[in-house]
Amino acid sequence: MSIEMDSGNIGFLDDGTISDIDILNSESENELEDLLNKFANDDFSAELDNEMLANTELDLHEEDDQTTNETQSGNEVFDISPMQFPFVQKKDIKWINKPFQEPNRFYSIRQNIHIINNMDIARDNTDKFVKIRPLFDALNNRCKQLPVERNISVDEQIVPFKGQLIIKQYMKGKPNPWGIKIFLLCGQSGIVYNMILYQGVSTNINKDLQKNFGLGGAVVLDLTKHLTPNRHFLFFDNFFSSYNLFYALTARQIYAAGTIRINQFFNPPVLSDKVIMKMGRGTSYEVTSTLGVGLLKWCDNKAITMASNFITSGKPESVSRWDKKNKQYVNIERPEIIKLYNKSMLGVDKHDQLVSYYRVYMKSRKWTLRMITHAFDMAVANSWLEYKQDAENMGILKKDQKDLLHFKTTLAEELVMVGRFSPGKKRGRPTSSPSSSTRSAECRSPTPAKTSSKALEFRPTEGVSKDLFGHFPAYDDKKEATRCKNKKCTGKTHVVCNKCKIHLCFTPKKNCFYD
């Protein structure tokens, strides 16, 4: 027996674009910044700016008189911390190491960074995430504004952290089992649409929901409360599943499926694992409640039990499996619900994978710093997934799209450079010659010292080169002129843009600065 519904009668969303920003049809690449700004609005940046000035002004003023001007934007914290320093360590991308920020200044900001004023925390505060709550609230509010895909899933995410923290969790099977737990609602594409920071009993979830549905069920109902009825397929694992939850989702017109624990379903009349395993691979057994919740037990390498409020077996398909006993492939039947679950349950894992590729790793005992950088990584991953979907909808070839690394570095460069002056030179007397110890070491060395490779001029992004801010010509002291970096020019020049750090012609007859 199966419960089937005609998808044509369900008001599903089209698999169209999920972004309202046409980032690929613009003249400048700085629209990438607009994607990230969807997850960090101006109000939050202003609040962050006030806290940054209060906590870093005294410390940084002793190092650099330019501090006041350089910290006037809260976005600087977004720029330096997550995406430029330390740089990605990979042999084939050394060219990405662009000097956007002085290390000393970066470490000073990192040491003093605060999202809120600690003196404002109430004595009776029970929110263990109060120090980073405004950042994640701003990120989550932006995630909730995105159009939600048809297939979505709920799962847990672990933010890696091994320091001392009362809310630290351990999850066996995760790539980083120790850390801070976050419940995520993700689409099949990996885009995050809602999240809950888990902090034990004080987690911000309705207590009545927890009493009636347990923690897992309460999390699912809380994460999905903003969904439009009759438009989504929701998937989750047995940590969240219960009979009451499926019934509640049916009332909300949300079509759900997930693996289950039998003891959460009032001991339904299904075959035991031992019996169904004897019946052979591909065997399935179904039962349906009077309220429309169906259970399916299917035998593969082991018995799998699933529940759904819209389908069970559906239209089974034939799949190939390896038979260890006969040492050959055999075809077995797989129910449709198993296929849908396997296809749609990967959203959170995909988002975790993208975040882990170029995760901001800064060794620190401060859990707040780890959570701040993780929020930046999540915002960038969401922005890149939106960028990819926009590119596909506009017919942009895959080879012409930016991968995650180049998207992140381009975004970082524009956030740091657009509309700002370039960092000044380091103060102090320059070293004119190597130290005596270095010279003596060179004399003792049997092999000649290796010469450093010739420095290259990196072309800035279009957003930086056309921001009309801080581009001033300067003359180098080289004996020979350098090739102009304007693509349309073949001349040579001694003139350098002191912001972009590239050579450009600047004569009465030719002005490559303007071009």
From TrEMBL:
Q: Where is there biased composition of kind Low complexity?
A: 430-440
Q: Give every PiggyBac transposable element-derived protein domain span.
A: 104-384
From the UniProt entry, list the residue stretches annotated as the region Disordered. Answer: 422-456
Question: What name does UniProt use for this protein?
Answer: PiggyBac transposable element-derived protein 3-like
Recorded source organism is: Sipha flava (yellow sugarcane aphid)
